[in-house]
Amino acid sequence: MIPRIPHNDFGVLAPPALGAWEPALTVTVVIPAHERQETLDLTLAALAAQSYPKHLLDVIVVDDGSVTPLRLPDLVPAKTKLISSPPGGWGRAWAVQAGLDAATGEVVFVLDADMVPHRRHVEAQLRWHHLAPYVVALGWIDFTAPGAFPSPEQVRAAVESGAEDALFPLSAHRHDWAEKIIHDYDGLRSAPNSLATRIHVGATVSYPAALLRSIGGMDTALVLAEDTELGYRLTQAGAVFVPDPESRAWHIGLPTAMRDFAALKRYNDPYVADRVPYRRYLRTDSGRQWRVQYVDATVPSGSYEDVRATVDALLASSIPDVGVTIIGPWQSLTGDRRSPLQDPDLDLRLVHATFEHDPRVSLAASPAVTGAPFRLQVPAGWVASEDTLERLVAYMEEQDSGRLYIALEETAEGVTVARLDRTAALSRSALVVTGDDDEDDLIDALFGVEWVDGETWGFKRRPAVYPPRRKPVSPVAKLTAAYEKEIALYRKRVAALRVEIGHLKREAGKNGRDAARWREKAEDWRREAVRLAREQNRTVLRRAVRRVRNLAFPDA
After folding, report:
1. Are 258 and 286 a contacting pair, CB within 8 Å?
2. Quick one: 295-461 is in which CATH superfamily?
3. Is there a contact between 459 and 418 (Cβ–Cβ < 8 Å)?
4. Pairing relation of β-strands 80-84 and 57-63?
5. What CATH superfamily is the domain 25-261?
6. Residue 147, CB-side half-sphere exposure with 13 Å CA sphere
7. pLDDT (tens digit, 9 = 90+) per residue, 504-548?
8. pTM for this predicted structure
């Protein structure tokens, strides 16, 4: 039976001690390389001295268009081959994909050509893959300080003897951000689902080959940030991330992210924003659309008014990256002659006409598998308030839950519900399910299932008349309304001053000695109130006139 890991808590697994177990899985180490012959020689020398059984390990070096073609040195693992990236692309993701396509191992281990692994580096990661087929294992990286390189022979000897720590001078720099996340969340075991993916760094990482291929492998359109994007898709596929401090390796020098972080971030942000909806801070521009939605909603076909009300409300959500799929028998809509008003498919046809050309709406016969981290199912005729989805998703993130049932209405026939699912929870359950499992019980065990009240979260039935007939508000009318609102505020302030005047007058009547003084003060308050009202009214009026003039005569 496949182990069932809740959330990212791989603590339910019991990995064997290094050197005290018998490996069985085959592994292909893929090394993408562009130039870097000198460091590649060291990487291969260290791999030649790994503790993992040699007959279970093979290596594929992928030359990604080096000006001087790479060659295999003398010190390499027994089963090592060198291939070139195929034509049609370039970059690390392209090279890794070429290696994945050629790999025969049950596990694919990606290692950069500037990494020098310790003796048990591969073994430490592979022991996790023997426990569960959806684990992504990551190595622990030490960065080298500037200094002369050892020879491949020195590397091989040091790795074989366990003296790897003395190979290089240690840099003070570390992956501080990743190590802090790992430390703060109990080795990543208590990390929320959307956070665990962040520590996926591609310099040393191993994947179940079947899992990696099931999600399409690498995004070869990316030149940088490919590990960030891949980590996101692995999360949606149900992966568990295991950083193993015993899988140590040297990184020769500092990576680009440490040498020029600002330039790298400037380059990566547009690509990451389009593909990784977890990065909410990159999606703050209103009116934008994105390649991967944050929430994918499914609405079944029904009456025209019901479907339109539900879909319109979802598209008006305060979350901008929402996509909607309307499920219906669209293939039945033919162009044959018919009575337009007596058409038995009239409602379906009207829905089709309403949303056919909306890029955020899909018309399909069944729900599609998408890359969104959250999936909503809601019956037609129920309308969500503007912030309903945002609050529901935030609640699920806070609880790190897998499924949320939203009770909309209870009748004699039963309870009408909407449902919000975490894609990772659905994928994880599909990886471990057996024929005896109830889906709700399984998702509850893995991520948690909860019921909430729909009305409390902003769901209600559609208005009696839908769509509403409203005239568009003109810009002048909007400015007039704003002006009237400001005038109302000033009038409120004037009214408050008049109340204060009345209070002062009453106080003056109670004390004859101070009557004159109070009357004088009250008169000052009255004059100030009149002056304030006139001045503010003029200011607001001038502002409104200026806005209207600019709107009507923009080139004046």
Report:
1. no
2. Spore Coat Polysaccharide Biosynthesis Protein SpsA; Chain A (3.90.550.10)
3. yes
4. parallel
5. Spore Coat Polysaccharide Biosynthesis Protein SpsA; Chain A (3.90.550.10)
6. 13
7. 777 666 666 566 666 777 777 777 767 766 666 666 556 655 665
8. 0.83
